[in-house]
Write a structure and sequence with these properties.
Layout: H1 12-18, E1 35-36, H2 45-48, E2 52-55, E3 61-64, H3 68-73, H4 80-86, E4 91-96, H5 98-111, H6 114-124, E5 131-135, E6 140-146, H7 150-163, E7 169-173, H8 176-181, H9 185-202, E8 207-211, H10 224-229, H11 232-244, E9 256-258, H12 260-267, H13 280-298, E10 301-302
Parallel strand pairs: 4-6, 4-7, 7-8, 8-9
Antiparallel strand pairs: 1-10, 2-3, 5-6
Helix pairs in contact: 5-6, 5-13, 7-9, 9-11, 12-13
Length: 304
């Protein structure tokens, strides 16, 4: 379950932005069994949370756009104390490929000290394996599930249903392995629609996120097979079927996008050594987007 300290409340500007959609503050609840109400207007804060810009000098720094709409949301980079309050007692599951594993690393890097992070890296980055940790000081259970194909994610959803146990926060993402080994956008689209059905039927978590694929820099990919199969044309074909699948909430689905494509594109070639995996700042930005989205979502729940 998600908990909030007074310091974590979205500012009055955001509350004013949201309240026309709800009859009174007394209608808000914090139970994870509540339904999340998304505001699909293009200028709503939940749809602006991915609006990140980069300052590459002297270091790779990022922040939210300075447009008045984004500034009115008062997004903030949360520190360890605030994250501990936000995720206190929560079960967080991140499932997918190496991109998802890097998100786990960034989240843990925000709540663990450097010595603890060094001690877990061997287990966290064990090739093609799951990983789990309990951060006792904040009562958070975090599981990474190695699930490089969308079909793996569908099986995970059914497992939650069968066990009648659902995480408080679920982050999923897959596509690069399918693109490399099957190179068939239509097949990927079928798998995504099946996953959407599994999510709707199986998952009771109110906080669902989809981790988008990164920008691929073809000339930097480290094998000939990748350079041949992971083309710009194929990437865009896969992206189109993702949008058409109605898995993302912007297109009528249950999952909020963590836009790694935009983050990696704007960070650029200087932020990657292999054209696929990016510097930690990209994934840290994705984690902060997730945390700010949790703040917004948790203040948009109505009693069911």
């Amino acid at each position: 379950m998600l908990f909030f300290s007074g310091a974590l409340f979205i500012s009055l500007a955001v509350c004013v932005h949201l309240t026309p959609y709800f009859p009174s503050v007394s209608d808000f609840v914090t139970s994870v069994q509540s339904v999340v109400i998304f505001d699909n207007r293009d200028d709503s804060c939940i749809n602006l949370v991915n609006e990140v810009v980069w300052d590459m000098k002297p270091m790779r720094n990022w922040g939210w756009s300075k447009s008045w709409k984004v500034m009115a949301c008062e997004f903030q980079k949360l520190g360890k104390g605030d994250i501990s309050d936000l995720l206190n007692g929560s079960w967080v599951v991140v499932a997918g490929d190496s991109q998802s594993r890097l998100v786990v690393q960034s989240l843990l890097g925000l709540v663990l000290n450097s010595e603890r992070m060094e001690s877990i890296k061997g287990d966290l980055f064990r090739r093609h394996s799951d990983y789990g940790i309990v951060v006792e000081e904040m009562g958070m259970k975090l599981d990474f599930v190695w699930a490089p194909y969308v079909a793996n994610l569908s099986n995970l959803m059914m497992g939650f249903k069968q066990n009648r146990s659902y995480p408080d926060v679920l982050v999923m993402g897959a596509g690069l392995w399918h693109m490399l080994h099957f190179t068939n956008a239509s097949s990927y689209g079928v798998d995504l629609k099946s996953l959407r059905s599994s999510v709707v039927v199986s998952v009771r978590s109110p906080h669902l996120f989809w981790l988008g694929m990164p920008m691929l820099i073809n000339g930097m990919l480290n094998t000939e097979e990748k350079r041949e199969k992971l083309s710009d044309e194929m990437w865009h074909a896969y992206d189109k079927v993702l949008r058409d699948s109605r898995l993302l909430h912007r297109y009528g689905g249950p999952c909020l996008l963590l836009d790694i494509q935009s983050l990696s594109w704007n960070c650029g070639p200087r932020c990657t050594v292999d054209g696929m995996h990016y510097d930690g700042a990209v994934y840290e930005a994705a984690v902060q987007i997730l945390l700010n989205a949790l703040l917004i979502e948790s203040h948009q729940k109505l009693i069911t």
